[in-house]
User: What shape does this take?
Amino acid sequence: MKTKLSAKNLNLSFADKQVLKNISVSFAENEITALIGPSGCGKSTLLRSFNRMHDLFPYAKINGELFLEDLDLYAKNVPVTEIRKRIGMVFQKANPFPKSIYENIAYGLKINNLPCNKEVVQKALEEAYLWDEVKNDLKMPATRLSGGQQQRLCIARAVALRPEVILMDEPCSALDPVSTLKIEDLIKHLKKKYTIVIVTHNMQQAQRIADKTVFMYLGEVKEEGTTDDIFNNPKNEMTANYISGYF
Ligand code: ADP
Ligand code: MG
Assistant: This one.
């Protein structure tokens, strides 16, 4: 499998608190990787560092090598807009813009100077398994959609930009089981085109959808491997404790 996204010797501190400790990890093309570990271990911070979301925090100190294929994500001449176009992000709480469903997709296309028309918007909504449910309501405010629909809209907004990677930070944590399974189906379908990294606290979810699983603890990657190995044959005692719900 070809490596799409990687971090090597990544250290990140907020002021004097080191949150990521010498992390080296890579994510393969067309695979789903689950990032698991107790709250506060640094999963979101790791995900966000690929998108340079700490650029605006003057007290965040980051060093290490982060690459999207051969693109150095922290090189001075790489615009953050290009990175965020190529690496999409979906958050725990669906955050549609306070605009219509149509405009939620169109906005990102326009600011990235991509072709924007009804066909492109339809295609993105189809790809996110949402088109059939909203095709007669494209002018409706997105905030009127259900939670699960709003999250699929956020996924549509990300895929509309034709990214290579989609980072998902607990995308189903706020959703009911039916909406969750719908999004899991969608994620499995998206991996044919994209590299996907998903943070989840739902161990069944990781086992249902992830090819690989990475276990983090206190800012470090403690163990990584195929999801099957991590859940059925963990090598690290902490991994074993965590997946069995011990802490
Ligand atoms: P997780 O997603 O695994 O729950 P986070 O990456 O959100 O963990 O947080 C890791 C640690 O970094 C926590 O101790 C958290 O309080 C701290 N942290 C996260 N974001 C910031 C920030 N912007 N400023 C200061 N500390 C932060
Ligand atoms: Mg988090």
Notes: Residues 101 and 142 are 5 Å apart (CA to CA). Residues 3-95+165-244 form a domain with the Rossmann fold fold (CATH 3.40.50.300). The chain has ten helices and ten strands. The chain has a mean pLDDT of 96.
